[in-house]
Amino acid sequence: MNTAAEIVFDHVTKRYVGRNEAALADLSLEIPAGAFCVLVGPSGGGKTTALKMVNRLISFDSGDIRIDGRSVRDLPTTELRRGIGYVIQQVGLFPHQTVGENIATVPRLLGWPKSRITERTAELLELVGLETADADRYPAQLSGGQRQRVGLARALAADPPVLLMDEPFGALDPITRFRLQTELRRLHREVGKTVIFVTHDVDEAIRMGDRIAILREGGMLAQYDTPDAILAHPADDFVAQFVGEDRALRRLALRTLRDVALEPASNGEPGSRLSADTTVRNAVSQMIETKSEQVVVVDGDTVLGVFRLHDAGELL
To answer: CB within 8 A of 280, min separation 6: which ones?
Structure first.
């Protein structure tokens, strides 16, 4: 099985009976294999509709959706869905089954031997940041964040090339949400799946995606590009208003101090010590808060250099 798969929306349209406006109107976009694509936009933009069409939970009226060149309409539904991981906001764990049994759902349906299932379950628990002993617990014994981790592990269990995520962190508190966002970004780097992630939160879209598709009401694609390109060059007034007036600051959040050119640091260099993994936006915030013109960038005990306030403007 491929690690990741290309997904193509080819002039896809969906209309619901009794509604004048299309839920999705002539959507065309290509998601490269291994990309993390975020669908974002206001209510009525067709984000979840587009997502659910990939695994045929919702049918489409015209156009086509292809996974590695094969139309989803040509694939048997069971085969299609077993090759796609699916994570939703409510998680949907089976309450009468243990964590381990929940994770093993698809491998069990595929007829994997018990030893392989046990090994894969332990591997996934570690991958999503849970303990091996958690396999014997029940969903009711877990926190919301832990249940969401189990849902992610279950979606990854059979090593599918595609992962669909429908506002998976929307019901979590901000601290847990941030932690899981960070974990998911790490996981994506490690497992390399093609991810389609739905959110209504533009900050989450910018933080998570390497590609962003902004949908406007009526299911029309407003812009599809990298986060930096969208922030630097919004396609129209709708996109500019949707991503916000603080686009410049949001662009600074896309880079860390490790990514930018630093000036050499002398012994005893003044300024706050910040990790190289700090975003440029947070470094600027720190300098403004401390009324300082620079910060010293470190990687553990090693001083990498100095980043100055005026350097930030040159990055835009």
So the answer is: 252, 253, 255, 256, 257, 259, 260, 307, 312, 315
Cβ pair 7, 66 in contact under 8 A: yes
Work out the angle between the directed axes of helices 144-156 and 174-191 (0-180°, nearest 10). Answer: 20
User: Which of 161, 155, 157 is CA-nearest to residue 33?
Assistant: 161
User: What is d(CA 76, CA 186) in angstroms, rounded to the nearest whole number?
Assistant: 32
107 close to 158: Cβ distance less than 8 angstroms: yes
Distances (CA, A) of 93 to 99, 116, 138, 243: 8, 21, 9, 34
Q: What is the pLDDT of residues 31-50, one digit of tens each?
A: 999 999 999 999 888 999 99
pTM comes to 0.86
What's the pLDDT tens digit per position in 97-125? 999 999 998 888 888 999 999 999 998 89
In sequence order, the 6+-apart residues with CB closer than 8 A to the CB of 302 are: none
How far is residue 216's CA from residue 66's CA, in Å, rounded to a whole number?
23
DSSP, residue by residue, the chain: --S---EEEEEEEE--TT-SS-SEEEEEEEE-TT-EEEEE-STTS-HHHHHHHHTTSS--SEEEEEETTEEGGGS-HHHHHHTEEEEETT----TTS-HHHHHTHHHHHTT--HHHHHHHHHHHHHHTT--GGGGGS-GGGS-HHHHHHHHHHHHHTT--SEEEEESTTTTS-HHHHHHHHHHHHHHHHHH--EEEEEES-HHHHHHH-SEEEEEETTTEEEEEE-HHHHHHS-SSHHHHHHH-TTHHHHHHTT-BGGGS--B---TT--SEEEETTSBHHHHHHHHHHHT-SEEEEEETTEEEEEEEHHHHHTT-
Q: Is 272 exposed, middle or buried (0-12, 13-18, 19+ CB in 10 A)?
A: middle
Rounded-to-integer distance, Cα 113 and Cα 115, Å: 6
The β-bridge partners of 31 are 7
